[in-house]
Amino acid sequence: MLKRSFFILFALVSVQATCNYTFKDVSIPPEVKTVSVNYIENRARYINPQLSPQLTDKLRQKITGQTRLTIINGDEAHYDIGGYITDFSVNTSGISGKEASSNNLNVTVHVIFKNRLDEKKNFETDITRNFPFSASLSFTDAQNRLMDDILKNISDDIFNKIFSNW
Q: What whole-number distance in Å separates Cα of residue 123 and Cα of residue 103?
């Protein structure tokens, strides 16, 4: 009985600690109620037609799932998030013998954040991530395999830049 009570107490403390950590990282002033997430246009030299709509959707889902903000369209939103993809390219990252052994898929998104309640907090920044893959894969195969990671990591980085205090 004592072991069982200890286990339950430990589980509750662990859950409480996890919850506090998750919510402590997101910082949104109480007066902020709405956000507009504009379509993230693809202006890169190489355009993957799936990247813009999927990244925009992933960011909207993340904001809806992890904040109390309501997503609206238009200029009335307290926060306005937009941007565009500036880079979607490949470069060699490793050579074995005289051939490429690994590559990086490079993705950069220029983020534009407007705080309509406090214009001093407006900013623009670039979010860049490199996604390694074997040189034995074609560019098309690499994109297909990496797309979930690209969407998750880039949307996480954008979210953290806007909503976290770190």
A: 32
